[in-house]
Write a structure and sequence with these properties.
The complex is a heterodimer of chains A (339) and B (275).
Chain A: E1 7-11, H1 12-25, E2 27-34, E3 37-42, E4 70-72, E5 81-86, H2 88-102, H3 109-116, E6 118-123, E7 149-154, E8 157-162, H4 165-172, E9 179-180, H5 183-206, H6 215-220, H7 227-233, H8 241-245, E10 252-259, E11 262-269, H9 290-309, H10 319-323, H11 330-338
Parallel strand pairs in A: 2-5, 5-6, 6-7
Antiparallel strand pairs in A: 1-8, 1-9, 2-3, 4-11, 7-8, 10-11
Chain B: E1 11-22, E2 25-32, E3 43-48, E4 52-56, E5 68-73, H1 77-83, E6 90-97, H2 103-106, E7 110-116, H3 120-132, E8 139-146, H4 155-164, E9 168-174, E10 184-185, E11 202-207, H5 210-223, E12 230-233, E13 249-250, E14 253-254, H6 255-258, E15 261-263, H7 264-267
Parallel strand pairs in B: 7-8, 7-11, 8-9, 9-10, 11-12
Antiparallel strand pairs in B: 1-2, 1-6, 2-5, 3-4, 3-6, 12-15, 13-14
The chains are: A alpha/beta (339), B alpha/beta (275).
The complex binds flavin-adenine dinucleotide, iron/sulfur cluster (2 copies) and FE2/S2 (inorganic) cluster.
One iron/sulfur cluster is lined by residues 245-248, 301, 314-320, 330 of chain A.
């Protein structure tokens, strides 16, 4: 049984001890580093604890631990991994990734092995980047599901919430480190959460994301060739950064090669913004123009996935806004659509 | 031998024979290391080891699982290499994928089959299936067109089928006649004028190059055939065939998973449908 509502308190030194233990048989990754420019990096690189995990999501998406940029599909490498400090938007992205790679008639064995071997210790956001807009998409800046344990930072320690059987197991086998959470600690957590949610909401509102229209309707409306898409896509240099940095972009291309050890097949990240993504032999192309390709990215996120899965495939993490060389801003395009 | 653990990995197949259909189309006779049962209209990914793979619909009878024929037009990297191979070559195959033709919806209907060029390949497999249950069809019309008489695939079989059964009408046309051609001249849709359709009882199956599919579909709609009675084999770029890689998306569908056959009413509004 999942003790979803079971709450504990864990001190900073207790967390350091827990991770130290976990690092014996797991590869432990931290979201940590410089102010607001956090990275997902092996815990060893962060030196001895106690440290605090990142205030906001990392630069790289969580998918990088589960869906490698280039993966030999014949070799499974299910190293047990722990991620500490994943944020609510990261967890939301895993619902999309799980649907893609574990759903349907076929499962991706590499993804499955990595997913089964990933322990997620997530954390509340304690700050927001100026590109964050999760609350606009109905999300909260703190995890509500999808984690094994979630940590809400307080001064000197964390309120711990259990989200899975794996999480329960972890608490049981380290019971000395966890105390029952006190009322005032919970009250502090709830206040921190409410304060930060209000901050993100203010930021979203100040940025003009105030409309209530259904995004699937907006994106589904009109043709991919209308002026809005053409103008917004005009600065796209087809680098693919928006896709590669996006936690929910999952498209890939299989490629074959031969080396001394035999024939190999790789699963490589691909980008729908590349001109040849939809090209077929003979040269026909469903989306030869950049406007059509920008539209397809929005359609996939705001219409295709809601239709299939009932979930938007954008978490509001703002990574693509930061990464785009053409300065194409998802938020601005959405605003224009609503106009 | 058991199936490979990864759905991305093919099982080995031996190329047993190659037959030339036209100057740029060949039929490849394959023997998989283990049977690959498929339903007509489903497709497979055929691997040239070390080079790559591409999707094809078997053109052989679904009643045969330990052999498979695939008819392939030379069109790019993988198909060029396939065309250079001789009997004995080792290839790989994975699949079958997709839903194939909904035979249950066809039974009892007067079936109008429109093919263009190498598009007759999947339709031949459908015909073999129809021959298995011919008693379930009041009438079957095959309308096939190619560029020129030398571009007709299965030329010998076309003549055989024309004589096979009264229920079966076979009409062939070419865009441009050559010396000695006594048959029809004109695009495949011109053959529609040569048959009398019982619209209320008819379903149409169309497979061919995009331009042919487009005009055939528009003409059938104009004739009064319901959009939900026009079955189209859609073709878009594919990589995985498994509903994961995102390449084959057509509006709300993945062609590999939800298709490759769709009725026109389901897809008519999608931008870039015929491109
Ligand atoms: C469901 C389905 C069934 C098909 N059945 C047949 C058939 O029976 N006979 C036949 O001759 N052709 C068939 N095709 C078309 C055939 O797949 C392409 O001609 C082939 O992929 C070209 O590969 P290439 O490497 O030679 O070309 P390149 O242009 O070098 O293509 C490189 C890669 O892009 C992808 N690609 C390119 N064109 C297509 C395309 N049209 N459709 C899907 N992926 C593509 C493939 O992965 C291919 O390996 C079918 C396509 C689909 C989608
Ligand atoms: S589309 Fe942009 S904002 Fe949305 S999840 Fe992807 S990277 Fe984040
Ligand atoms: S990041 Fe910007 S420039 Fe690069 S492919 Fe995406 S939209 Fe185009
Ligand atoms: S071919 Fe990969 S999703 Fe259809």
């Amino acid at each position: 049984m999942v003790l979803a509502e079971t709450l504990y308190y864990l001190s900073e030194s207790g967390l350091a001890e827990l991770l130290d233990k976990l690092s014996h048989d797991n590869r432990v990754y931290l979201c940590a580093g410089e102010e607001l420019e956090y990275r997902i990096a092996p815990a060893e690189a962060s030196g001895p604890g106690p440290w605090r995990f990142s205030a906001v999501r990392a630069v790289e998406p969580l998918k990088s631990l589960l869906f490698a940029a280039r993966q030999d599909v014949s070799s499974l490498s299910p190293v047990p991994q722990v991620i500490l400090g994943a944020k609510a938007c990261d967890l939301a992205s895993l619902r999309i990734m799980d649907h893609v790679f574990l759903g349907g008639d076929f499962q991706d064995p590499d993804y499955k092995a990595r997913r089964d071997n990933l322990l997620i210790i997530s954390g509340d956001c304690t700050d927001a980047k100026d590109v964050c807009f999760c609350t606009f998409l109905g999300a909260k800046p703190y995890p509500e599901s999808g984690y094994d344990l979630n940590l809400s930072p307080l001064s000197g320690g964390y309120v711990v919430q259990v989200g899975s059987d794996k999480g329960t197991g972890l608490i049981e086998s380290n019971s000395g480190l966890f105390q029952p959470a006190k009322q005032d600690q919970l009250a502090q957590r709830d206040k921190n959460r409410a304060d930060l949610t209000a901050k993100v909401e203010r930021q979203v509102k100040a940025g003009g994301l105030t409309f209530q229209d259904r995004l699937d309707k907006l994106v589904g409306r009109g043709s991919p060739d209308v002026e809005l898409w053409t103008r917004n896509a005009s600065t796209c240099v087809e680098c693919g950064a928006c896709n590669f940095i996006c936690p929910t972009c999952h498209c890939f291309l299989l490629s074959d090669m031969e080396d001394r050890s035999g024939f190999k097949r790789f699963r490589n990240w691909d980008s729908c913004q590349y001109k040849n993504f939809a090209r077929v032999a003979g040269g026909a192309n469903q989306r030869p123009r950049r406007a059509q390709r920008l539209h397809t990215r929005f359609e996939k996120k705001f219409k295709f996935f809601p239709d299939r899965l009932g979930q938007i495939a954008c978490t509001g993490c703002g990574r693509c806004v930061e990464a785009c060389l053409g300065k194409i801003d998802m938020r601005e395009v959405l605003k224009e659509l609503a106009r | 031998m058991s199936k490979p653990a990864s759905p991305y990995q093919p099982i080995p197949v031996t190329l047993e024979k190659v037959s030339q259909e036209t100057s740029n189309i060949k039929t490849f006779w394959l023997r998989p290391a283990q049977p690959v049962p498929f339903r007509t209209g489903q497709f497979v990914e055929l691997t040239v080891p070390g080079l790559g793979e591409a999707p094809f619909t078997p053109s052989s009878s679904p009643a045969v699982a330990d052999r498979m024929e695939i008819t392939i037009m030379k069109a790019g990297t993988v198909t060029d290499c396939l065309h250079s191979l001789k009997a004995g070559a080792q290839l790989g195959v994975r699949g079958p994928y997709g839903k194939g033709y909904p035979m249950d919806e066809f039974y009892g209907k007067e079936l109008l089959i429109l093919g263009g060029g190498v598009g007759l390949a999947p339709l031949r497999s459908l015909l073999y299936q129809i021959f298995e249950d011919l008693d379930k069809f009041p009438r079957v019309m095959l309308l096939y067109g190619a560029k020129s008489p030398t571009d007709l695939v299965y030329a010998g079989q076309l003549e055989e089928w024309a004589k096979r059964d009264k229920k079966l009408e076979v009409l062939v046309t070419v865009d441009a006649a050559a010396n000695g051609w006594k048959g029809n001249v004109g695009v495949v849709t011109t053959l529609l004028r040569k048959i009398k359709l019982n619209l209320a009882q008819t379903s149409a199956v169309v497979c061919g190059p995009p331009i042919m599919m487009k005009f055939a579909t528009l003409e059938l709609v104009q004739t009064g055939l319901g959009k939900d009675r026009i079955y189209l084999s859609m073709e878009k770029n594919m990589s995985c065939g498994l509903g994961k890689c995102g390449h084959c998306r057509l509006g709300p569908y993945y062609i590999c998973e939800d298709g490759p056959v769709f009725t026109y009413d389901k897809i008519e509004a999608i931008a870039g449908l015929w491109e």
